Amino acid sequence: MRAPGVYFQEGNIACAEGAMAAGLGLFAGYPITPASEIMHHLARALPKTGGRFIQMEDEIASMAAITGASWTGLKSMTATSGPGFSLMTENLGFAYMTETPCVIVNVQRAGPSTGQATKPGTGDVMQARFGSHGDYEMIALSPNSVQEMFDFTVKSFNFAEKYRTPVVLLADAGIGHIREKFTIPEKIDLVERKRPLTDDKEFFHSDAEDHVPPMPAFGDGRELLVTGSTHRGNGTRDTAGYETQDRLVRRLKAKIDDNRNDIIEWEEDEVDDAELVVVSYGSMSRPARGAVSKARQSGLKVGFFRPKVIWPSPEKRLRDIGTNSKILLAELSLRGYRMEVERCVGSENMHVYDRLNSLPTIDRIYRCIKEVMK
Q1: In this structure, are residues 151 and 157 in contact, taking their beta carbons and an 8 Å threshold?
Q2: How many domains does the chain fold into?
């Protein structure tokens, strides 16, 4: 783990450094382009910090390993790209159901299937939200710089620990492989999971305002049952009762929904007076923001909005913006965030600049802005 200071490095390395700064105890993964540098770096660096690194036989086992590690009390993480993320989703659903804090990094690439392994894409946005079956809410962050790869990895661990849930870092190949300066600060604020008190016996139910129950670890000496089946507050299975399922799943949803104001984050610029607002995220947001600046300089009333947290969605703010302005969504996908933005602002008010495989120039997005504003 590197000392505080300024470094010039690629996004994937900054992500690995952010994980170690957050207290990563175990990384389990399988190599896949364009995320492999995270694994390579941690294979060398993590054991030097007292952490554990293991290469698993596939992504299914990787997700299982970090889930198990979390229940021993370790902060855990895996990293992959689209095809590997697809393999992880069943065990990811288990982690949501068992309220297991862990971090999954998806450095997205152009798909479907194996697609183009070295090209960026953001087609996994809806998969991250709905990839596993059943009813659940989730947290996903979208970095657009090397600095945010570091910062958002730390933040992902903090959200995972605070809300006792898996958290997905939705990066893309453009951000994973770009090289630029980033800073490791002297002080990093970390969140640790809520531990049980002496007389706690229910680790899957909470009457607390945040809906988050305490989490013991295997080996603590407590009677501890962990199952992906519907379970009571003490962990025992109840696969027949309506009340148990209703109480459990509604709380899993509420602990994200009711705390969304603590979770959601975005940046915006010149939105309130804009006739058109460009919405973008990930690596596409970099040329998109440049195009907005060029449009403003040419006298067009154009604003910029970037969700830093993709899920839960900043839906209220998007609706407010869509009430007064046209929306242009710029993304590296044909479907990534499109359905969500359209749901919030309405199809009649929405325009799309989609791109596959590579980032466009600022001028290309600028021309699209002018076309929409005619």
Answers
A1: no
A2: 2
Domain extent, residue 285, equals 265-373
**Tokens of residue 113, six digits:** 């299937």
Angle between helices 11-21 and 36-45 (to 10 degrees): 40
The single residue listed with the structure tokens 């600022």 is: 362
Give the Cα separation of 79 and 183 in Å (integer). Answer: 22
Residue count (the chain)? 374
User: What is the spatial distance between Cα 209 and Cα 264, in angstroms, rounded to a whole number?
Assistant: 18
Show the low-confidence residues of the chain (pLDDT under 70): none
Region of residue 363 (phi > 0: left; psi between -120 and 50: alpha; otherwise: beta): alpha
Q: Evaluate whether 126 touches 138 at the Cβ level (below 8 Å).
A: no
Return the H-helix or E-strand segment holding 27. strand 24-29
CA atoms of 73 and 69, how far apart (whole Å) = 7
Is 200 contained in some domain?
A: no
Of 154, 184, 214, the one marking the end of a domain is 184
pLDDT in tens, 284-333: 999 999 999 999 999 999 999 999 999 999 999 999 999 999 999 999 99
Where b means 16+ CB within 10 Å and e means fewer, 252-291 reads beebbeebbeebbebebbbbeebebbbbbbbbbbbbbbbb
What's the rounded Cα separation, in Å, for the pair 37 and 125? 22
What residues have CB less than 8 Å from 129, skipping those under 6 apart? 138, 140, 310, 311
Domain co-membership, 156 together with 19 = yes
Token pair recorded at residue 313 = 């969605």
Which of 150, 184, 218 is a domain's end point?
184
Looking at residue 185, the DSSP 8-state letter turns out to be -
Check: CB of residue 147 under 8 Å from CB of residue 182.
yes
Structure tokens of 6? 């300024």
In this structure, the answer to whether residues 23 and 118 fall within a common structural domain is: yes
pLDDT tens-digit readout, 245-267: 999 999 999 999 999 999 999 99
